């Protein structure tokens, strides 16, 4: 996690340094925001790792069986076995399943495949990436607010060229997106380029946000991306003292299966009493056992 995250942030720092070296004027506090994102992501990764400290043996069994398909769900079936609550012992069929999993442990040696060398390399890479991030980001040359004159600021807001820009289309216009998904907004201009284009986002419950639309290469298309849509909002594009119409974005959510219980009635010849497996999504049973699934409703 740290190797991927710090490596990504080191790449971002290199991109920012490249933009700064090419003469691109970076927004104020760019370095501060990048450092803040690095620290926030690092803390988030540590919290996720702490929450996942408990071992989910079913998931471990699934992961092992993906790399060892020859097990044929033997390990997962063994993990799901529970002794009789009265005697505290396993019956004949359960003991066979467990013994089969123990034999597979000896044959495949899946417990000896922990990649210790790879983990050491990843730890070393993560610290190298962090050092690269700090060294590279320290080379960014950001203009201070006092270094930009009022004349330069006014010139940046003037339309580029002799013609005034005309807004032809805004994508996606009115839309409906899944909650938590990103949304890209593109403003298509013609007859010139605007000096500055701004996306004004107005949530139903929240403060108004203003995002600068960035020109895409040499095309008269300006765009910005909202990383995560958490609720309905309206938006419009402002440019050269003009405004587009107001567009509406609604959100929706797909239903999710949170819990499913299964009641298993084994054939009479097995001598196994009926049992209920709670909160499961995968079952391995004796042939001829009809499962009854129950999905609790909210």
Task: Provide a compact summary of the structure.
The protein is an alpha+beta fold and 298 residues long. The chain is built from 7 helices and 13 strands.
Question: What do these coordinates show?
Answer:
This protein is an alpha+beta fold. The chain has helices at 2-21, 30-51, 57-67, 74-79, 92-108, 116-137, 150-157, and strands at 166-171, 175-178, 183-190, 197-203, 209-212, 214-215, 221-226, 233-239, 242-243, 247-252, 261-264, 275-277, 291-294. The longest helix is centred in the first third of the chain and has 22 residues, at 30-51. The two termini are 36 Å apart. The model is unreliable at 144-162 (pLDDT under 50).
Defining traits:
298 residues, alpha+beta, Immunoglobulin-like, 3 domains, 6-stranded mixed sheet, 4-stranded antiparallel sheet, 21% strand
How do the strands and helices of this protein lay out in sequence?
Elements: H1 2-21, H2 30-51, H3 57-67, H4 74-79, H5 92-108, H6 116-137, H7 150-157, E1 166-171, E2 175-178, E3 183-190, E4 197-203, E5 209-212, E6 214-215, E7 221-226, E8 233-239, E9 242-243, E10 247-252, E11 261-264, E12 275-277, E13 291-294
Parallel strand pairs: 2-10
Antiparallel strand pairs: 1-3, 3-7, 4-5, 4-8, 6-7, 8-9, 8-10, 11-12, 11-13
Helix pairs in contact: 1-2, 1-6
